[in-house]
Amino acid sequence: MEVKHEQFEAIYTDYLKRIEELDLGQKARVVGGEINNSELVLPFLGKYYRISKDHLLDTEGKRPLHAVIVVLCQYLLLSPGEPVQDEDVGDWLSFRDFKDAAPFAGAFVSNVEKNIIQHFQGRLESLKWASEQIQGYEPDTGLSYDLIRVFPALPRMDLMLLFNDMDEEFPAECKVLFPDTADKYLDMECLAMAGWLLADYLRLQAGGEEMSIM
């Protein structure tokens, strides 16, 4: 564990050095969020984080999970030079539909979709309640699922959860989808982390134990 802590600390320090070179005001125009003094304040899955050249902290002044640090820093560092225009946003895609997703696709199914099924099959009302706690809302999609929720994950990227509970004939089914522009802002590893964090946050809201992602 000590070795992993040292690795995480080195990654965190490197991210801050790279963020120091950014114009956070210009980045806010591209990725969303607000500038407050010298910090960029970004929402991520219902929580707010303060990013500057010196730190990345939550609203209580604490350093968040390593996975949250990676997703937020990469969101800044990998983002395009200009915001993606609304007319360029099209369909929702499953994780495996993205071009470079193959190396992470199996882990995504296990850590995200099966994770949600394992905790919420037979507990549909619990999943509805947990979704509300992290700002999930029911969109008008015309799709037929027992539960459909969209989560404002990042200012330029939502996540959609589709869930059918088990019945006498079929097992529970879960899909987590991304807008087809998601890979303009994050790489596949970070998209997988974002989905995994969503699954863990839902579990915690519904009485699950500690996070399974670090």
Instruction: Detail the poorly predicted runs.
Output: none
Helix content: 40-55%
Order of helices and strands: HHEEEEHEHHEEEH
Total beta strand runs: 8
Q: What's the rounded overall pLDDT mean?
A: 94
In percent, how much strand structure appears in the residues? 15-25%
| Overall outline | globular
Q: Gyration radius, to the nearest Å? A: 17 Å
Q: Helical stretch count?
A: 6
What separation lies between the terminal Cα atoms? 11 Å
The largest pleated sheet is described as: 4 strands, antiparallel
Strand order of the largest sheet: 1-2-3-4
Main features:
single chain, 8 strands, 2 domains, 214 residues, alpha+beta, 40% helix
Can you walk me through this structure?
A four-stranded antiparallel sheet has the order 1-2-3-4. The chain has a four-stranded antiparallel sheet with strand order 5-8-7-6, with helices on one face. The protein is globular, with a radius of gyration of 17 Å. α1 (2-20) runs parallel beside α3, α4 packs parallel to α6 (188-205) and α5 crosses α6 (188-205). The model has no long low-confidence stretch (mean pLDDT 94). The protein has helices spanning 2-20, 24-31, 66-77, 102-120, 124-133, 188-205, and strands at residues 34-36, 39-44, 47-51, 56-58, 92-94, 147-154, 157-164, 173-179. The longest helix is centred in the N-terminal third of the chain and has 19 residues, at 2-20. With 214 residues, the chain is an alpha+beta fold. The chain folds into two domains: 2-77, no CATH class; 90-205, no CATH class. The chain is built from six helices and eight strands, in the order ααββββαβααβββα.
